[in-house]
Automatic annotation (TrEMBL):
Alphabetically ordered keywords of this record: Membrane, Transmembrane, Transmembrane helix
This protein's name: EAL domain-containing protein
Record's keyword annotation contains Phosphoprotein: no
Keyword Membrane attributed: yes
Residues annotated as domain EAL: 1-249
Organism of derivation: Alteraurantiacibacter aestuarii
Amino acid sequence: KEIEAELRAAIQRDELSIYFQPILDLSSGRIRSFEALVRWFHPEKGELAPEEFIPVAEETGLIITLGNWITRQAALACAKWPNDITVAVNLSPIQIKAPGAALGILRALDDAGLSPERLQLEVTESLFLEDDESTAAFMDQLSGEGVRFALDDFGTGYSSLHYINKYPFRTIKVDRSFVSGPNIGRHSDAIIRAVAEMGSTLGMEIVAEGLETVEQVQIVRRAGCTLGQGYYFSRAVPEHMAAILLTEE
Ligand code: G
Ligand code: G
Ligand code: MN
Ligand code: NA
């Protein structure tokens, strides 16, 4: 299809770039990490959201090349930041099931000269619907090398506790629908608190996503979330802006 050919060309022509959204420590207010979010600046169509092209990349298998490129770019940026700052990269389920997937990630880290401990891979609950051995092998291999894993969009998929029990997650990202928006629901605050308590018992970090107001920041901090992310702190910004955010601390 048209968009597939364009996407192939876009990678070559440098039309894709990675933006970075800070993730802050809610007690110190300092930046701990940045989530890498891909953007496509199309010469005619303007900025395209990942929702418009990630699914195409997944259907065509391009996601493997694209995903390794994104990981490499994110790792290159992170290698320029102070040693205690990490980078989070979203992984598509297709990427994880591809043969040699773990090697692709390790090669990207190696190319960038980034230590594996500074990479956090975000996987969503939906990935695990199949819950197969290739997923377990992928995660075990990378976590053996020191790469961290975060369970993204927590609370929106199925039987998450099983995944937390089975796979080596270090972090849970509570979906932003528990923080704001039309699906906020009647028990959101209590659910966030319960997830945060479970996280602390398990020695995991809990990230509250989608924080847009100071009130929301206060609620999730009181609920026990250790980290926060959202427009209240910053949108995703280009790499040079991320570097400025770090020097302004
Ligand atoms: O930035 P936001 O509009 O930036 O991202 C929208 C969705 O696209 C989110 O679910 C996010 O996880 C996903 N996304 C953003 N960047 C990437 C990426 O580099 N790889 C994958 N697989 N998904 C991404
Ligand atoms: O699925 P994932 O959590 O990776 O999605 C990240 C998406 O969330 C990106 O599209 C990012 O731009 C968006 N996002 C980040 N912070 C906020 C926020 O405070 N409010 C809203 N509505 N979206 C946010
Ligand atoms: Mn994410
Ligand atoms: Na999320």
